[in-house]
Design brief:
The complex is a heterotrimer of chains A (219), B (274) and C (322).
Chain A lengths: L5 H13 L4 H31 L1 H14 L4 H12 L3 H25 L3 H9 L4 H39 L4 H10 L3 H29 L6
Chain B lengths: L17 H11 L2 H19 L11 H13 L2 H33 L1 H14 L4 H12 L3 H25 L3 H9 L4 H39 L3 H11 L3 H29 L6
Chain C lengths: L1 H18 L12 E7 L6 H8 L2 H4 L2 E7 L6 H7 L4 E5 H9 L5 E8 L9 E5 L14 E4 L5 H12 L8 E4 L2 H9 L5 E4 L3 H6 L4 E5 L1 H5 L4 E7 L1 H6 L1 H21 L3 H11 L3 H4 L13 H13 L19
Helix pairs in contact in C: 2-11, 2-12
The chains are: A mainly alpha (219), B mainly alpha (274), C alpha/beta (322).
Chain lengths: 219, 274, 322
């Protein structure tokens, strides 16, 4: 009974989509994901660039970053509830907090892995710091940054679902949990399929964007 | 996250004397980072003492440290940590191994890419708490389940990074291999693998962070053993200082593991950061 | 895992042989291990009392308790064969039964027999002016999880005190955080259980306004020990022995509530400090399951749209439980 036949799940799925029931939770999850992922990207790329270019920033922030990374978000939830309440703020924090690390690390690695010749060339041309970052470092590190963003994409979705399960009132995570609790396995699997499709669609979209942004990556 | 200074890695096979390595470590880790962490801890202590967060669930740092000391002395925290680490390590190794193999396959074989990649993309977004109840049916509630969940979580970043690394291998290198009429297997082993290593390493580094966290989450959801369960248990037992003590344990362990991985990386892939 | 169980059994045999002891109590080798999934709350104290007093050992059973904080893995684990017996609440049991899951009630757990026994309560901020379900319309109530016994009876209480349960929002908040959520106005009321409720109401900021279980359905059978019909069919004597030992544990628990030895047992599996436990009143546990009460709960579930259609209660109750 805990493993319904695919046909039953498909039937349930059709009902959800046709009936329009799928829209409300899905849009909630999409919104949460975009906000959290957006925050994580800005923070991750910004900090990654800074830490990659500045030894001072690296020394200052590295212990903090490495200490915060292994903390499971579920352990932080009580503290987050206290300070941010039970709602969007907490959920966005959970998503952003987890998604920021792959982006940060990959950006950092990307910056550090830049061919020194490029940097020397920029120095020869007496490029300002900002110019160097924008025209040399950012493009050269772009493949690494995008890889990090790709990993964070799926991580962000996973955490949005987790956040909805822990602190949410709506969204895919919430309905999956609810149907789990009520042992409505057909519904649960149907929602999981919707989740998987959503994630796959997002990945595909990201791939398209990546191809545009980094066309020189050999395929 | 420090890239090694170029001069130190001219002879990567020779492990420098411990003193030299330690000296370099100390120099490259400015005190400012440690100071920042201490400052934040101080802020935590003050906020708890002054009651900024009006709650018994926000213990002062000193209480947490006391609980930490007690947990270590009694041997409970080390024991739990060991069991969690064991699961994390097993899941990590399996996940990374499969990830690298799959990444290499996807990167070098067209048909594998078209068949397997969609499958991977479909399963990726399903989070641990959602996947645990169905998996319990097949794997039970013990270590096998938890290790499997961790391996699955580690698999994804590693396979993606490996794929990216393989795909990003300099065309010139591949041409050279072709000129020398190198066999496919040789090309893989001597050209593709070493050239993709930085990306693979980055993937494995991401996976290290994921492994520990997912193990703890799996323990929280599926219960009964390890630090993850202890954290939930202490929450319900109204002992938040013990809970945060365990969280600190986790953070410290994660930090040390990452340090170890970085050092391993530096020794193994010296051209990173050049 | 099964292989682990056999390994333990084999190891136990070797250990017993090495020890070479024979006595009135069966040696380790002869003990059958039963894996019981529990939630570490006071409801299962009788089980632990029975283990501690050796009642299970005397029946030739070794209990392997598997704690699960949310109870989410209990019933799936039962179906998967990881557990032989699971402690669960009546609502989850009925939901599982409706979905066709092979589940049976094998032993009694928790029952609210008298008003004094009802330790859980709806708690509000003392200055909020909320007195009834009607006052809660348009507001938020905290429950530990939705679709379980607590959520159901919170809704029923709101209805019984003049309110419309559909006009209330139910936020899921884990028990340890409910007091904080209430204080910080993230919820307007919380349905709290011991020990958390005792701690909150001891403070002047909070007060109780109702006891859903006893006000809605006095005598409600809140939790039971569950198993599968497969287990009952294959090992009926084992089930009988389990219940027999458990009943002795229940009697011991009922007689020793508040005594230091019992508090030590509770502290052992909940990890709550003994000093905190002294402040808590423990209600007695029932010796038998109450099918008519379960029937009433089922009707309530239908009324609140948790169940599509009635579930036959009688076939679900094992003969040992009565």
């Amino acid at each position: 009974m805990l493993l319904p036949p695919p046909s039953a799940v498909a039937a349930e799925l059709r009902e959800l989509v046709v009936g329009g029931e799928v829209l409300n939770p899905l849009s909630h999850t999409v919104y949460l994901f975009l906000v959290g992922y957006g925050v994580a990207s800005v923070l991750g790329i910004g900090l990654g660039l800074w830490m990659g270019c500045s030894a001072f920033a690296d020394g200052l922030l590295e212990p903090l970053v490495e200490l915060l990374r292994p903390i499971p978000k579920s352990a932080l939830v009580p503290a987050l509830f206290l300070f941010l309440g039970i709602g969007m703020a907490t959920m966005v924090t959970i998503v952003a907090f987890a998604a920021v690390f792959p982006i940060l690390i990959n950006t950092y690695q990307g910056v550090r892995g830049i061919d020194p010749v490029l940097l020397e060339t920029a120095r020869t041309f007496r490029c300002s710091r900002w110019r160097t970052v924008r025209s040399v470092i950012l493009p050269a590190a772009m493949p690494a940054i995008l890889t990090g963003m790709k990993v964070s994409l799926s991580l962000g979705i996973v955490l949005a679902i987790l956040a909805e399960m822990l602190a949410g009132l709506n969204g895919l995570g919430f309905v999956i949990l609810d149907s789990q609790r009520a042992f409505q396995t057909r519904q649960m699997y149907a929602w999981i399929v919707i989740l998987a499709v959503f994630g796959a669609a997002l990945s595909l979209l990201f791939d398209k964007v990546e191809q545009r942004a980094v066309p020189w990556r050999g395929q | 996250m420090q890239a090694p200074a170029p001069s130190a890695e001219l002879a990567p096979q020779v492990m420098p004397a411990a003193g030299g390595r330690l000296g370099r470590w100390r120099k490259s880790h400015s005190l400012s980072g440690v100071a920042l962490v201490l400052a934040l801890l101080g802020l935590w202590e003050i906020s708890a003492r002054l009651g900024w967060a009006d709650s018994s669930n926000w213990p002062p740092v000193t209480a947490v440290l006391a609980a930490l000391a007690e947990g270590i002395a009694s041997g409970e925290l080390p024991r739990l940590l060991a069991s969690t680490l064991m699961r994390a390590a097993a899941g990590y190794l399996i996940g990374c191994g499969c990830g690298v193999a799959a990444g290499l396959l996807l990167g070098t074989s067209r048909w594998a890419y078209y068949i397997l990649k969609p499958l991977i993309e479909v399963f990726r977004p399903i989070p641990a708490p959602a996947i645990v109840p169905p998996l319990i049916l097949f794997l039970g509630v013990d270590n096998v389940l938890k290790i499997f969940v961790v391996a699955l979580a580690c698999f994804f970043p590693v396979v993606l990074n490996t794929l990216a690394g393989v795909v990003g291998v300099d065309e010139v290198l591949l041409q050279t291999g072709r000129t020398f009429r190198a066999k496919r297997w040789r090309v893989l082993r001597d050209i593709i693998l070493p050239a993709s290593l930085p990306m693979i390493a980055a993937g494995m580094r991401t996976a290290t962070g994921i492994a520990l966290v997912v193990t703890v989450i799996a323990e929280m959801v599926a219960g009964s053993a390890g630090l993850g369960y202890y954290i939930v248990q202490m929450q319900y037992a109204l002992r938040p200082e013990a809970m945060y003590a365990a969280v600190i344990c986790l953070a410290a362990t994660g930090y040390l593991v990452n340090r170890a991985v970085v050092m391993l990386e530096a020794w193994w892939i010296p051209w990173l950061g050049k | 895992m099964k292989s682990l169980r056999y390994f333990r059994l084999a190891f136990g045999m070797l250990a017993a042989l090495a020890a070479g002891s024979l006595g009135a109590v069966p040696s380790r080798a002869e003990l059958t291990t039963l894996r019981v999934s529990i939630i570490p709350i006071n409801d299962v104290t009788p089980l632990f009392s029975a283990i501690k007093q050796g009642y299970f050992a005397e029946e030739g059973i070794a209990i392997d308790t598997s704690p699960s904080a949310g109870g989410a893995t209990g019933i799936p684990g039962l179906v998967a064969g990881s557990f032989d017996i699971v402690y669960g609440n009546v609502v989850s049991m009925l939901l599982a039964a409706q979905q066709g899951i092979d589940i049976r009630v094998v032993a009694p757990g928790t029952k609210i027999a008298t008003v004094e026994n009802d330790t859980s309560a709806i708690v509000v901020r003392a200055d909020s002016g909320i007195k009834s379900g009607k006052d809660l319309e348009g507001k938020t109530v905290g429950v530990n999880t939705r679709n379980n016994v607590i959520w159901l009876y919170a809704r029923a209480w709101i209805k019984a005190t003049g309110g419309d349960p559909d006009k209330v929002t139910y936020k899921e908040i884990p028990h340890p955080q409910m007091e904080d959520a209430l204080r910080q106005k993230q919820i307007d009321a919380g349905y709290m259980v011991i020990p958390y409720v005792a701690l909150a109401t001891a403070k002047p900021d909070f007060k109780e306004i109702g006891h859903p279980y006893s006000e809605v359905q006095l005598g409600v059978d809140v939790g039971q020990y569950l198993t599968t019909s497969k287990f009952l069919a294959e090992k009926p004597e084992l089930a009988t022995k389990f219940v027999r030992a458990l009943r002795r544990g229940i009697e011991w628990y009922n007689a020793n509530r508040g005594k230091p030895e019992l508090l030590e047992i509770v502290s052992g599996f909940t990890r709550i400090k003994v000093d905190l436990l002294k402040q808590i009143e423990m209600a007695p546990s029932p010796l038998a399951v109450d099918p008519p009460q379960i029937e009433k709960t089922m009707q309530l579930m239908i009324e609140h749209k948790l169940l599509r259609s009635p579930v036959e209660i009688k076939p679900l109750i094992a003969q040992q439980a009565l």
